[in-house]
Amino acid sequence: MTMISKGMAVVAAFALVTSASFGQVGGAAVPFLLISPDARASGMGDIGTAIADNANAVYWNPGGLGFNDTRQIALSFSKWLPQFNADLFYSYGTYAQYVDAIDGTIAGTVIFMNLGEFKRTLSDGTVLGTFRSNEFGLSLSYGTTISEDLGAGVNIKYIQSNLAPAGLGSAGAGVGISAAFDLGFLWKPQKLDFFGMNLDNVLRLGVNLQNVGPKMTYDRESDPLPTTLRTGIAIKLVEDEFNDLLISADFSKLLVRRDSLGSDPIPTSFVTSWGTGGIETGIGMEYIYDQVVALRGGYFTEPKAAGARQFFTIGAGVVYELFKLDFSYILTVEENHPLANTLRFSLLVDWGLEG
């Protein structure tokens, strides 16, 4: 029995262009966990570790939740790999609220990745039926401030992968289930003197260890989660009554080492993975006028050993009362790249703690 579907090629491409882990033999499971959810960060070259301090900090750096003292809903949607016209889409939703009794912000998040429809066929081409593939994650988060300038946060995740029905006999068949955690810190010094330079409210530094957990186990194989170490820096270049200009950069490393014999376990892979793949780099800028209109641009690159993705990004945003709407667009260096023309839309609703 075989599976024949345009979706098979699409899912393979999804894996290749989504995660550096697929530049290695076999790769890691559930690469949807590495997709940037919000259009603000996506428009700046897929960066956010040092700048996310609203509900979207759940993905980029839960330490940023410690600086959020309001109630927010963040929603995002993107048609994924539009070049394939294969009904792949990514959706994301987070609710975050500050709770005075625990001196911090709690959040709940849902992520859903639709991977399309597959045909189930015999070797002679007879169609036995169809099935749909998807992956999703649920998480609970908590973030607080350790000091006036330092935030810390943690995510606890449930992850499920439904690539193919059990009994098909293919790799990845059956329901894969795992759990993971993230741990992040964000430093936003309000007072900082650096060799005579006044950096008060100018510098931000962030670090986030993502997707630490046991392997995702299917019927016939087990694959490691895409455990990733992210670091970020942001500098506020201009801040006055009407203008804000920010530059930021992220550096991320997949902490997975896998070869034809298998993959290294955690925490061994935290050390051995540095000899494989490479470091992804994103850099971006954001200009905001009168706290109403934002323009963004960025660039993302990774070494050949890690997948060789390269693309430019542009984005924009507008604020109206308690609504913030953002969009981003990917401009790939390579023609006919699967990520070309990818659009992301996200909405942030912030209505404070009262009302």
Descriptive overview:
By secondary structure, the chain is mostly beta strands. The chain has one domain (2-350): Porin, CATH 2.40.160.40. The chain is 7% helix and 52% strand. It is built from four helices and 21 strands. The chain has helices at residues 6-18, 39-42, 57-60, 269-272; strands at 2-3, 71-79, 89-99, 104-121, 127-145, 150-164, 174-187, 193-194, 197-198, 203-212, 216-217, 222-223, 228-239, 243-254, 258-259, 262-263, 279-289, 293-301, 310-320, 323-332, 343-350. The strands form four sheets. The protein has a 14-stranded antiparallel β-barrel. β18 and β19 form a beta hairpin. The radius of gyration is 21 Å and the shape is globular. 44% of the residues are buried.
Features:
355 residues; mainly beta; Porin; 14-stranded antiparallel barrel; 21 strands; globular; disordered N terminus
Brief summary of the model shown:
With 355 residues, the chain is mainly β. Helix content is 7%, strand content 52%.
**Regions with little confidence, pLDDT below 50 for 5+ residues:** 1-10, 19-26
Kindly report the name of the CATH homologous superfamily.
Answer: monomeric porin ompg
Distance between the termini: 59 Å
Which series of helices and strands comes N to C?
EHHHEEEEEEEEEEEEEEEHEEEEE
Domain module tally = 1
Give the spatial strand order of the biggest sheet: 2-3-4-5-6-7-10-13-14-17-18-19-20-21
Largest sheet: 14 strands, antiparallel, barrel
Query: What is the CATH level 1 assignment?
Result: Mainly Beta
